[in-house]
Amino acid sequence: MNPRRDEPAPLALLARRLRDARRVVAITGAGVSAESGLRTFRGATVADLPADMQALWKEFDPASLATPEAFDANPAMVTKWYDWRRLGCLAAEPNPGHAALAELEHQLHARGGTLTLLTQNVDRLHQRAGSTNVVELHGSIIDWRCTRTGRRVTPDAAPMPAFPPPSPFDPAGLLRPDVVWFGEALPEDALTRAGEAAVECDVFLSLGTSAVVYPAAAFSRLASSHGAFTGEINLEATPISNSVDVSIRARTGDALPRVVELAFGEG
Ligand code: OAD
Description:
Elements: H1 9-20, E1 23-28, H2 30-34, H3 56-59, H4 62-65, H5 68-73, H6 75-91, H7 96-110, E2 114-119, H8 125-129, E3 134-136, E4 139-146, E5 152-153, E6 175-179, H9 188-200, E7 203-207, H10 219-225, E8 229-234, E9 246-249, H11 252-264
Parallel strand pairs: 1-2, 1-7, 2-3, 7-8, 8-9
Antiparallel strand pairs: 4-5, 4-6
The site of 2'-O-acetyl adenosine-5-diphosphoribose has 29 residues, from helix 2, strand 8 and helix 11.
């Protein structure tokens, strides 16, 4: 697929780099799921959206909802909020950005390469779109776990029967979402896989993430310092926009399908 005469040069450049790469890593954030109707955490206020569709941390306080202290203080409120979000994720459908990443994995694999998808998203939409090599840095809201035994369960697609939900594994336990809260450590195996993949890759992409939450935000710089070509697709500028090799201002649901088509389409 040749670039159209009016194709923005950064898209064509990124496509060329992907075509020549063997190991690609992408880190995704809430922006990739925005076109599935899921709210981001941060980002500019969108003039034509009502208040209850704006970024979550504009309406809700992360300290009262997304920390272990908040759960200890008010488990009913915290689990109710997470259950509301869980049901939203289950009702959402993957969008063309998710599909393009699944296709990128397929194309690279067919040529002996790999795509490692590091995601801060807890919605499982990448897996539902067909991506198989996904590292969940912030866990998943689709699974919940017992506070006493750590055992996981995937609750039905219906509201929890009670808040806080009792654990099916231990009468003294509760269920909490299997996500990483502020102040909690990221899963060690996910961090190790992410760090290794970033060090070894030829191309590193930051997609729909504000790149402000560490350590996830550090991976682009780590990859760059080990020689990777780095790119970003985001609606807005971020703290890494000036340090990546190519920064594209676009919706991931528009730009990713085009980049993958340019890189691997017929023509
Ligand atoms: P954020 O909500 O911080 O950032 C979303 C980014 O996506 C913003 O930079 C937007 O400009 C961009 N964006 C929005 N719609 C887009 C679209 N259609 N295409 C491309 N870009 C778009 O989300 P994350 O970076 O994922 O953690 O946030 C990281 C972590 O902070 C989350 O995992 C969550 C949050 O607090 C916890 O809850 C612990």
